[in-house]
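Honest question from a wet-lab person: if I give you the sequences of every part of a complex, can you actually get the arrangement of the whole thing, not just the pieces? Trying it with mine:
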Amino acid sequence: NAGVMQNPRHLVRRRGQEARLRCSPMKGHSHVYWYRQLPEEGLKFMVYLQKENIIDESGMPKERFSAEFPKEGPSILRIQQVVRGDSAAYFCASSPRGGGAFFGQGTRLTVV
Amino acid sequence: EDKVVQSPLSLVVHEGDTVTLNCSYEVTNFRSLLWYKQEKKAPTFLFMLTSSGIEKKSGRLSSILDKKELSSILNITATQTGDSAFYLCAVEARPYNTDKLIFGTGTRLQVFP
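Yes, you can. This is the full assembly:
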């Protein structure tokens, strides 16, 4: 049973490009969280999804950021028109029912 | 608004010292409290606490929950340089009729030889 898989591990984008971060939850897990972590800071909640449903997106910036978790396939965090301030580590965690989450290794996004 | 607060934000100690990290919470429909350790990669799970007053131990680490005080502590005895990390507290709550995990900002622990 593979753990939570995130890809890519590292992503470099120029300002204005789009970034797509993928998260495949553990087998049998139907809930996914996305968190952002800036250097030397703690995790900040972004969005909480169930398959085909956004449960809580209170931590998502109002513009340029979106997330989905389709019935088939990984959860995607999409950042349009990236800016330098989007550079961070993005962690995904999956859960069988919404608690006791298991984390992926993260995607480190660098915007140049 | 649901929140989880950790203190101190940062801690610097020498090897062999004992440290106590605090986590307090105000959430809707508390279900459990979790501690994670994060080094330069993904957080790794340490403890899950659901019952008040029952200590959980793993080697030099231990943790206990106080539901009356809405808080938990994580103790690390005889610290080693390998204990240097972010320690994250998360609370599983049920604010929207579905479970949600709310993280504190973490405590950064640095252990020097």
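Two things worth pointing out. The radius of gyration of chain B is 14 Å. Residues 90 and 103 of chain B are 4 Å apart (CA to CA).
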